[in-house]
Amino acid sequence: MMRRLPSLNGLRAFEATGRHGSFTAAARELNVTQTAVSRLVRLLEDRLGFPLFRRHANALELTAQGQALLSGLTDAFDTIARLTESVTAMRGGPVLTVGVGPTLAVTWLIPRLAHFYRSHPDVEVRMATGGATRPVRDDWTCTIRRDTDALPGYNAECLFPSTVVPVCTPKLASTLRSPDDLRNATLIVVSHMPNEWPHWFAAAGLRSPVHPAGEVSFESNVMAMQAALDGVGVAIAQIPYVSDALAAGRLVAPFPIVAHTVGGWLLEYRAIRKEDPALLAFRGWLHQEADRARQVENMLVKQGSIERREGPSA
């Protein structure tokens, strides 16, 4: 069935005029002259067979028909605008959804995505919060998480080992001479990861319980890393969380001891997705970035900035 619609230009002119209450304001929005808007509205009124405005000397007043038409048109144009935006946002290339913990996403993955897009401009990467702390969803293409084994039914590829190191600002580090000085410092703790500090203390040779002068607890690693950057205290961090900040000198490792913990950072995906074009591109790029991350750690070891040590068995 063919729709019998009035002029869309006339409807746009009327809707803008009705919202603003002025031909002049509508003309500015539509980037045409006031005369053009007034003429389009007049032609629309002629087409409909009734007036939409009562024209006064210094004001426009909507008629009852004008009020009814305006409310429906505004909703309709808003719907068209939203639809246009959503279609414009759609990409024709492969789409990849990766589940990843918020801290790794913010501190490591997102800062590197520009490099991925330069090499693979046709692939759209969508991130979902999860991977490290939430169950993997079936609609995700892959996940990056820290664990000892792959999830049931998933292939797992190791990206880099799980290692922790104390970090703080250079100013705070200048007050620390040995690991034992941490007893007089404020330690930053992540509430759901209470064993990270004890693990590092054991690797550093501090066998007895360490009771710091102060302790600040956060619910997430993202908040803990920001607190370290703000000089709140000394945080214990996974190397990927702080590798960029260490390389830039925004954070330092006051005691160059990296403790290996159980497990590692894994890229996981179902076997059925192995040949997915987006995943193939992402996997190759991700392993290259992981290799670079390991090279940075190796460089710091050679420079004496950090030293690897094994923590206690889990």
TrEMBL record:
HTH lysR-type domain residues are 6-63
Q: Which Pfam families match?
A: HTH_1, LysR_substrate
Which example biological process does GO assign this protein? DNA-templated transcription
Q: Which UniProt keywords apply?
A: DNA-binding, Transcription, Transcription regulation
Molecular function (GO) terms listed? DNA-binding transcription factor activity; sequence-specific DNA binding
The protein's matches in InterPro entries, at most eight in alphabetical order, are given as: LysR-type_TF_proteobact-type (IPR058163), LysR_HTH_N (IPR000847), LysR_subst-bd (IPR005119), WH-like_DNA-bd_sf (IPR036388), WH_DNA-bd_sf (IPR036390)
Which family is this protein grouped under?
Answer: Belongs to the LysR transcriptional regulatory family.
Q: What is this protein called?
A: Transcriptional regulator, LysR family
What does UniProt list as this organism's lineage?
Bacteria, Pseudomonadati, Pseudomonadota, Alphaproteobacteria, Hyphomicrobiales
